[in-house]
Design brief:
By secondary structure, the protein is mainly alpha-helical. Helix content is 74%, strand content 0%.
């Protein structure tokens, strides 16, 4: 019986946390920071409503990219990227709601929706690349 501890080789270590290098993940993290900052500005009456919902949805965008990144199949990874897209849709709806409730102005809304659209385009393109070329690039 081998009593030496098992260690990963360099190639195996490189595959760990590889999502952190992807531009789509970095864009998701930047978007999350802006959404969380906006959520903190919402009134206390929204603490357990829009504030928490918007924060959880923006977290979910990043978390699904990370969680899916080491799935065993590209189809499975693609499903996690789709979950990120649907969480982004949820954030967009929250932005609609807080605009409608008068918590943000049209200019700030337009900036955030524009950034959400850019992130959505990246998620869609990345998902397409995973489905067509595989995720072990």
């Amino acid at each position: 019986m081998n009593s030496e501890p098992w260690t990963m080789n360099r190639r195996q270590r490189r595959s760990l946390f590889r999502f952190r290098q992807w531009p789509v993940y970095q864009a998701a993290m930047a978007f999350r920071r802006k959404i969380r900052q906006l959520a903190r500005k919402l009134p206390e009456s929204e603490r357990y409503l829009l504030r928490d919902q918007m924060s959880r949805a923006s977290d979910s965008i990043c978390l699904n990219i990370a969680e899916g990144s080491n799935k065993l199949s590209d189809i499975e990874f693609s499903k996690y990227l789709n979950n990120s897209e649907t969480s982004l849709e949820e954030v967009a709806c929250c932005l609609d709601l807080i605009l409608d409730d008068g918590y943000i102005g049209k200019e700030e809304f337009d900036d955030l929706i524009g950034e959400a659209e850019d992130l959505g385009s990246q998620l869609i393109a990345f998902g397409r690349k995973v489905r067509e070329e595989g995720s072990r690039f």
